[in-house]
Amino acid sequence: MSPRTWTGRVFIATSLDGFIARPDGDISWLTNPPADPVHLPPTLPRTVKVFDQHMARVDCILMGRKTYEKVLSLPQWPYGTKPIFVLSSTSLEEAGEVFERDRIGSVYVDGGEVVQAFLRKSWVDEIILTHAPMLLGQGIPLFGFLEKDIRMSLRAVDVIEDGMVSAEYQVIK
């Protein structure tokens, strides 16, 4: 098998306890966080790779069906005109072949199950993981079973709006 020519990038947020959604798929805790009743001084945001900057670095988006359906329920489509591939449970290998055939350079990988599948295939090259200051206690985890350890190198950490912390990791291959 020839080396992969495209880069897999994950840009995703979780609760502090590692969940991407509540058990029923609800993400309102992330998209509409409650107002801070304590009125602490705001954290000072720094320059980070925000969503628009991340989108400028990718050629297309690949997401699972459940994530796609959740995004369709949002009030506004967040992905602009980027091509989107919706992955079914049977089309993982086909996705990699399409990226090679169409000479796609960089893929935004989204959705818990898709991220997990790409990690198992060693198809993730970097992860930008944002933690929201919220503990859910239960929900849909971002990371699931992996056959082996996946080492990462921390490249940057930034504080962004609403007390969120964003960490950028390079996957060590």
From TrEMBL:
Molecular function terms, GO-annotated: 5-amino-6-(5-phosphoribosylamino)uracil reductase activity
SUPFAM superfamilies found in the cross-reference section: Dihydrofolate reductase-like
Gene Ontology terms describing biological process: riboflavin biosynthetic process
EC number: 1.1.1.302
Pfam families documented for this protein: RibD_C
Superkingdom assignment: Eukaryota
Keywords: Riboflavin biosynthesis
Residue ranges occupied by any Bacterial bifunctional deaminase-reductase C-terminal domain in the UniProt entry: 10-70, 101-165
InterPro entries assigned to the protein according to its UniProt record, in alphabetical order: DHFR-like_dom_sf, RibDG_C, Riboflavin_Biosynth_HTPR
Reaction it catalyzes: 2,5-diamino-6-(1-D-ribitylamino)pyrimidin-4(3H)-one 5'-phosphate + NADP(+) = 2,5-diamino-6-(1-D-ribosylamino)pyrimidin-4(3H)-one 5'-phosphate + NADPH + H(+); 2,5-diamino-6-(1-D-ribitylamino)pyrimidin-4(3H)-one 5'-phosphate + NAD(+) = 2,5-diamino-6-(1-D-ribosylamino)pyrimidin-4(3H)-one 5'-phosphate + NADH + H(+)
Function, in words: Catalyzes an early step in riboflavin biosynthesis, the NADPH-dependent reduction of the ribose side chain of 2,5-diamino-6-ribosylamino-4(3H)-pyrimidinone 5'-phosphate, yielding 2,5-diamino-6-ribitylamino-4(3H)-pyrimidinone 5'-phosphate.
Recorded family membership: Belongs to the HTP reductase family.
The protein's name: 2,5-diamino-6-ribosylamino-4(3H)-pyrimidinone 5'-phosphate reductase
